[in-house]
Amino acid sequence: MTTSGDERGSLRIAGQPIAALLPPLRARIVERVVRHIAEGVPGYAGMPTDLLEVDVRAVARENLLAFEASVEGRRFPEDVAERIYASAYGRAEEGLSLELVQEAYFVGTGVTWDAVVGLATVEDLDVVRTLGHEMLRFLAQVLPIVTSAYVEEMRARETDALGHRKSILSALAGGLTGPRVASTYGVTLADSYLVLAVDLRAAVPAVDQQAGRVVTRRTIRAIEGEIGGDRLSGVLFELDAFGGLILLPHVRDGLEDWTPARAKDLVERIGRHAVEVRAAYVVAAVDEIPAAVALGHDVLEVVTRGGRPPGLYGLDDVLVDFQLARPGPVADLMQEKMAALADHPDLLETVHAYLDAGRNRAATAVAVNVHPNTVDYRLRRVEALLGINPATTDGSALLRIGLLAFREERFAQAGPVD
């Protein structure tokens, strides 16, 4: 049912224009609205008296004026819309739920309806029906304003939280005045942290660049949801398509919070979002975080270059490879030698499996799905190409150094999440 402006302006109840009936009733209606909201809407009853008397009363009056304008066929006043928006934004900042604020508007509209319809007679049935439509039309204008205020406040809060988190994380990782920056934003730091260096790689390559960007954005949002779902968790993180850094509170107020086992579970959950996750962790006090970040990235490099499967790793998990991967003339020489195997992926796979199997030819054959004699043949070819016997202790150590150096280039070419 559509009502023109002229028809709305001529609406009468008990023989009188509604536009003339409402002004004398304003004070009484506003008083009832404030009382009903204070007594009947959870969250408002405990509000300070000045808030109820000033803000809620003012908004109730503005809404009544807006409804009068609607009934008279006039446009919704822009200044009233601005005040409704400002009031809703204030409630959002104070943490009052959107549902309660919307309920307050329904309560206010209901009180106004009762006051006006209470004057109607039997002959006013058609007018009451029309007035009901006007009430709904009025709410259809007001509620989107309230909702948009809440959405905007939420966006502003998210932006502030993201900026604060990045500022604190950067200060801690950079060895700057992390505690001072944190206190500026009202954040209490943990006693120590699990510092996670993270590497992200797409489990399934995207079909094209556009699809890759979509997958990347969705993946990062999903990962951030896994990490920061609890706003009070104290977790600090910054991630992009390649990976990033996560600080998980390890000990807070003397109590253990994030353990390596719990962090391992987090990494596994992240890995469910169509992404391979490799992460390295180091436990560090606040003032040790810069060194922990550097060590974490070194451990992560060993993990990725060593071709280890997705998961969470500590230094204890890669001690031998970590030491072998240290830069030096031996590593440089072996990187050059390993180039001879660049065009022989079968030999690289066999050497890697052979070393992982502790130089057990039978286990190697199972790992690469060939006959043990084929393993022997491939190892002889490796010795011929490199001049290194994989079956000896020294030879296997040199080959492990070579694999770690050689895999650096291969993993660098693997690409980010997108």
Question: Can you characterise this structure?
Answer:
- The protein is of the alpha+beta class.
- It has three domains: 5-155, Globin-like (Orthogonal Bundle); 190-315, Alpha-Beta Plaits, CATH 3.30.70.270; 327-412, Orthogonal Bundle (Arc Repressor Mutant, subunit A).
- It has 16 helices and eight strands.
- The protein has helices at residues 5-9, 18-40, 49-71, 78-93, 98-117, 125-173, 178-184, 209-228, 260-270, 289-305, 319-324, 329-338, 345-356, 361-368, 372-386, 393-412; strands at residues 12-13, 16-17, 192-202, 236-239, 243-252, 255-256, 275-285, 311-313.
- Strands 3, 4, 5, 6, 7 and 8 form a six-stranded mixed sheet that branches.
- Helix 6 runs antiparallel to helix 7 (178-184) and helix 12 crosses helix 16 (393-412).
- The chain is elongated and about 110 Å long.
- The two termini are 52 Å apart.
Q: Mean pLDDT across all residues, rounded?
A: 78
Low-pLDDT parts are 1-8, 408-418
CATH superfamily of the largest domain: Globins
Helix content: 55-70%
**Computed CA radius of gyration, to the nearest angstrom:** 34 Å
Question: What structural category arises from helix and sheet content?
Answer: alpha+beta
